[in-house]
Specification:
- The chain has 165 residues and is of the alpha+beta class.
- It is 16% helix and 38% strand.
- It contains 3 helices and 9 strands, in the order H-E-E-E-E-E-E-E-H-E-E-H.
- The radius of gyration is 21 Å and the shape is globular.
């Protein structure tokens, strides 16, 4: 009887604080991204040998927590299942959105995971238990498409444009 009462109390507590639970999402392709998360990978160009990764997140916060959401972006790279690099990346808040940009060698993209997480803060600045979202993104699914059959990246060169005029 005591166990049934505890279980019922737990369900009531869960129902009343459902917004306070942390949600974990695994993202493997662009199609898995929710509407409030944008991830873009620009392939290397002639002026840079690194791929440019841009992440933009607009946190979905309950009405009472608007403006009190912290966002963290972490990068983890492995090689042969052994950790190579793990660290927190800098973010910039622009209006309601949080932006993060970094460059990475294309070969490392296939072995890199990006974790974007949000957490809510109370009015006194202390973190709320739960109430956040965690997106674990496997960058392998976002790797830029291979170059075309002719070896070109699909971008027109000046010479190619002149030849068509």
């Amino acid at each position: 009887m005591k166990a049934a009462f505890s279980f019922a109390c737990g369900l009531i507590l869960l129902a009343d604080t459902s917004f306070a639970l942390t949600v974990f999402n695994t993202i493997n392709t662009e199609g898995d991204c929710p509407p409030n998360l944008k991830l873009k990978i620009e392939p290397p160009r002639a002026d840079r040998e690194m791929a440019l990764v841009t992440v933009v997140l607009t946190p979905n916060a309950p009405e009472g927590y608007r403006g009190r959401v912290d966002t963290t972006v972490r990068l983890r790279t492995t090689r042969d299942d052994a950790p190579q690099f793990a660290g927190k990346l800098a973010t910039i808040r622009q209006g309601e959105s949080v932006h993060c940009r970094f460059q990475i060698h294309p070969a490392a993209l296939r072995q890199t995971k990006l974790t974007v997480s949000t957490s809510l803060r109370e009015k006194d600045g202390h973190p709320t238990v739960g109430g956040g979202v965690i997106y674990e993104i496997d960058l392998r699914g976002f790797f830029p498409a291979p170059r075309g059959n002719n070896g070109h990246s699909g971008h027109s060169s000046q010479r190619g444009l002149r030849g068509r005029q």
